[in-house]
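Meet the record:
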Amino acid sequence: MMTKKNLAKAVTLSLLLSTALSSNAWALEINKETITADSIKTDSRFVSSELEDSYSAVNGEKITLIDVKIEKSGNDAISLIGVESVNGGEIVGSIFGGFNDMANDNTLTLNDTINNVMIIGGYSQSGEANGNTVIINNSDVSTAAIYGGNTYGTSANGNTLELNGCIADGTGRSSIIVGGGGYGAEQANGNSVLITGNTKIYYNLIYGGYAKESKNNTVTIRGENNIVDTDIYGGQSEKTGNTLVIDNHSSFMNKVDNFESIVFDNVKWNNEPVFEVNFYSDGNINTGTGGIYVTELGEIDKVEVRELGSTDINIGDKAYLIFTAPYDKNKIEKFNGQESKNYSGVAKVIDIKLEYEDEANLSLKQNGGEAQTTTAPALSAVVTGVERNEQTNLVAENRAVAAAFVNQGTDLIADSLDTLSRDG
C-alpha cells in the first residue's frame, strides 16, 4: 500500500523526469557540421521563416552550435533564428536569439567563434525587442552588426550586450555595436553595453541606444581595451539619462556624444599622463596611464568619481579624468571646483574636488615614434580631505556597549553564585 509520503515522492520524481525530458526536447544541438545556404533547404531539422533566407528549428527548439561552419552558396547567405549558444566554428551568416513574436527575453552567447555578418539577441520587424542579453567571449566579430535587441518598430528596451576579449574590426565596412534600437525605432531606453577583457574595436560605432527616444542607456569601458577611431554614443540624438562609465581604463577616444554624465570607477592616482597610439602596428595600440583624451566631446552635465580604486588615499592625491582639444575646453571647464564625498572601503570618507587646468602636461607617443610632451585642457580629481567614517565610530561604540552588558551580566552571575554559596 502506497503511503502519502511515498505518493509525494513518486509525484515529485515524475515531475522532475517530465521537466528533464521537456528540456531536452526543446534543444537542438549541432556538432561539427558544415551547413550551407543550399544544404539547409533540404535539412529536416529546419524550417524556413517568414524572414527571407532565414531558418529556425522545425519544432521551435533553441539551437546550440558547436564547432559548426555555416557557409554561403555563391552569394546566398542564411540567417538562423532561435540560436541560444555558439561555441567555436565560423558563421558566415546572421544569428538571432529570437524573431518577431519571440524577440523578447532571449539570451545568446558566443564563445571562441567567428561571425562577420549580424548578431542579434532579439529581432522584431515592427514590434518589441526587449530584455535580451548577448554575451560574446573571445570571438572575432569584425565587420558585424551587433545588437542586444533590434527593431524597426516600437521598442528595444532593457537589452544587454557584452563583448569580452573580442575583435571587432570595421575596416572597409560600416559596422555598429548597439545595446538596443534600430533604424526607425521609436524607443531604445535602459540598454547597456559593456566592453572589457582587452577587446579590440577598430573603425566602428557604439551606441547604448539607437532610436527616436533613447534614454537611460549605459556604455561601460572596463579595463584595458584598444578602441581605435570609434565613435561612442549614449543615444541616437539625445543624452537624457545616458551614462558613459570609464572603469580602470585610459586611452584616446575619437568622439563621445549624447551622454548626460561620465562616471569614473577605479581611477589611476598620481600617474603622469602618457598616451600611446599606433595605428600601423599589428592589432593597433591605444593605451594610456590615466584619464581619457577625447578629440570630440559632446555636451555633458555631470562628471562623477564613483569607485576610487584604492584604499590608500591621501590628501593631495590626483587622478586625471578627461583631456580635450582646446576648442572643447568649455565642456569640462564648467566642472572646476565641483566637490563630492566618496568612500574608501568602509572606514574612510574622502573629500574630492574637480580641478580644471587650461594647459596640463602630457606625453604622447604616436605610431612607434618617440614620446612628445604637449599640453591640453584637462579635468582631474584632487583629494582635499580624508576623514574617519562616523559609522565605524558607531560600530565601535555598539561593541563597547555590548561588552559592558556582557561584563555586567558576568558580575551578576558571580554575585549570585557567591550568595548561594554562603547560604548553603
Notes: Residues 7-25, 394-398, 400-406 have pLDDT under 50 and may be disordered. Residues 390-423 form the longest helix (34 residues).
